[in-house]
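Pasting as-is:
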Amino acid sequence: MLTIKDYTNKYIPMKILCISDFHGKFPNKLYSFAKEEKPDLVLVAGDLSESDAFRDLQFKNWNKLKSGETIETIIGKRKFKQLLQSSAESVTNIFTKLEKLDVPVIIIIGNADHTTQSLSTYGLEKSGIDHLALNFENIILVDRTFIEIDNLAIVAHGGYRGVKSRKSHKEGDSLKYATHKTQYKKDLKSLFKNMKDKTQTIFLTHDVPFNTEMDLVNLETSPMNGKHVGDDVYRASIEKYKPAINICGHMHENQGKEIIKDTIVANCGYGHDGECCIVNMKDKKTSVKFYKL
């Protein structure tokens, strides 16, 4: 559990700027908007690192990757390492701008972000997002953490389980890999047990919940086009614990909201192109407004 501040027992209003998927770019129009809005808190739902080059290579070599090859074997170790370092270090510019907002910035990692552990094989530990975050006072990088800010609670759960590549699937049948599913369930049960008031609780994830408008792929260049690719564990947790709102990202094309049980599911949109949302929590009521700048 992480307590950022605990000054009052009252339910004070909170204005929260939510952004996801910078992918190496913090547009000036989004930065100016953030400064003008003066939020009390910023939440970032992952994927700060530039990943377009990796994504293009993945889509271009989809069949090779399915057969067991890797991007590294396809383009060579030297070029892969250079690409990896450039992607990892692209978060520095994002951190610099977020720091200047002069409010707490809570960040989880997404599938495009690189940690010291994931970079250790290549000797690039100092380029890890967790290492770079140490240089910034307002940046709070967390993973699988319950956070308290006055009477506001945040269940922060970063990471990404990926999706299976299948030619067909039944409606209601998750495409998520089984990898880490059991651990996700344990993590979320442990985190949500700290929840005191669901009307004051934010569930912060990178991935979107399964079988919603949020997780339906609508991108012709994607091998997953037309399929639901969200996380079934996240959906089950939302249905069980009913937090006020689930802030998520990942699906660039699906900015917007949907209601699951009593929970607002809000996809921030593609921060790289200036999309975001603002959440207002006041008198135990939650509202969200989306922006395309």
